[in-house]
Automatic annotation (TrEMBL):
Its EC number is 1.14.19.1. Belongs to the fatty acid desaturase type 1 family. Residues 1-20 are annotated as: Disordered. It is found in: Endoplasmic reticulum membrane. This is stearoyl-CoA 9-desaturase. It comes from Kryptolebias marmoratus. Pfam families: FA_desaturase.
């Protein structure tokens, strides 16, 4: 692992030093100024209808759980973890923040999990997430938490993007994503991969291998699992920006939220993550309530991942003393 040591003198927002960053795209831009006036909100009715149908189907899947076999419930858990890792270990920590390096087989594995998660392709997900860090809690943030819980949770997907999100997103340097053949292959074939991995595979595997009904397969490991992973991810954007403490940087909204960390397999240590976005663990506590970190550590052990970026204890202590809000760090 690569420990990032003492910071140099150059400073960024909230006292952040140049050594505390890993990509130029995920560094907060304190020169950005919001334009006067608010553009009209335009509803995207297709998304509203689809999200309503998805959550209705997920609710029906919840009532079908007693009819599902133990093997189907185990398969549902496997699909949950696999699809969540495609987001947390893949689109987020690997491709958005480049916090570690992954071999081709691991990148393919994570890309497949990302397609099962169906949260936009890796390229678009990473672009929006870098914009979220660079313009956090402003109009250029795709899911600006200052617009309320509902907006930052799901509402941002139900309306047209703010013009600043589009403008600033187009200016990000995404050459690393364009150069990754796995990212671009998934982008070219994203719709087909989603149909196969998000909907058909979760339904057909239990039907073919242990005789589960297609209805249970579609609604439980299919729609219910999909909706749960979606909402776990969205909680990072909403709940983890509103509820919890801020021991690393009291001047920013992201919080330490153990419930979100549990549901999103490690992504709830959000005050830490926005303070040190390049750290592969997104937490100073290693694998604690952090299945994604445990997975990356395992991949390093078997030789499929390497060069994990991690903040030194000295830097963490110095940052807490400089900008921290005190209180329990949820460790």
């Amino acid at each position: 692992m690569t420990a990032i040591g003492s910071p140099p003198s150059s400073k960024q927002q909230n006292g952040q030093s140049a050594a505390e960053t890993w990509t130029a795209d995920d560094v907060f831009d304190d020169t950005y100024r919001e334009k006067a006036g608010t553009p009209p909100m335009v509803l995207v009715w297709r998304n509203i209808i689809l999200m309503s149908l998805l959550h209705a189907g997920a609710l029906y899947g919840l009532f079908l759980i007693p009819a599902a076999s133990p093997l189907t419930l185990a398969w549902t858990a496997v699909c949950y973890i696999f699809s969540a890792l495609g987001v947390t270990g893949g689109a987020h920590r690997l491709w958005s923040h480049r916090s570690y390096k992954a071999s081709l087989p691991l990148r393919v594995f994570l890309a497949l999990g990302n397609s099962m998660a169906f949260q936009n392709d890796i390229y678009e997900w990473a672009r929006d997430h870098r914009a979220h860090h660079k313009y956090s809690e402003t109009n250029a943030d795709p899911h600006n938490a200052k617009r309320g819980f509902f907006f930052s949770h799901i509402g941002w997907l139900l309306v047209r993007k703010h013009p600043d999100v589009i403008e600033k997103g187009q200016k990000l340097q995404l050459a690393d994503l364009k150069a990754d053949e796995v990212v671009m292959f998934q982008r070219r074939h994203y719709k087909l991969s989603v149909v196969i991995l998000c909907f058909l595979a979760p339904m057909l595997v239990p039907w073919y291998f242990w005789g589960e009904s297609l209805m249970v397969g579609y609604f439980v490991p299919g729609l219910l699992r999909y909706a749960l992973v979606l909402n776990a991810t969205w909680l990072v954007n909403s709940a983890a920006h509103m509820w919890g403490n801020r021991p690393y940087d009291k001047a920013i909204n992201p919080r330490e939220n153990p419930f979100v960390a549990l549901s999103a397999i490690g992504e709830g240590f959000h005050n830490y993550h926005h303070t040190f976005p390049f750290d592969y663990a997104t937490s100073e506590f290693g694998c604690k309530i952090n299945l994604t970190t445990a997975f990356i550590d395992l991949m390093c052990f078997v030789g499929l991942a390497r060069d994990c970026k991690q903040v030194s204890k000295e830097m963490i202590k110095a940052r807490v003393q400089r900008t921290g809000g005190g209180g329990d760090k949820q460790g």
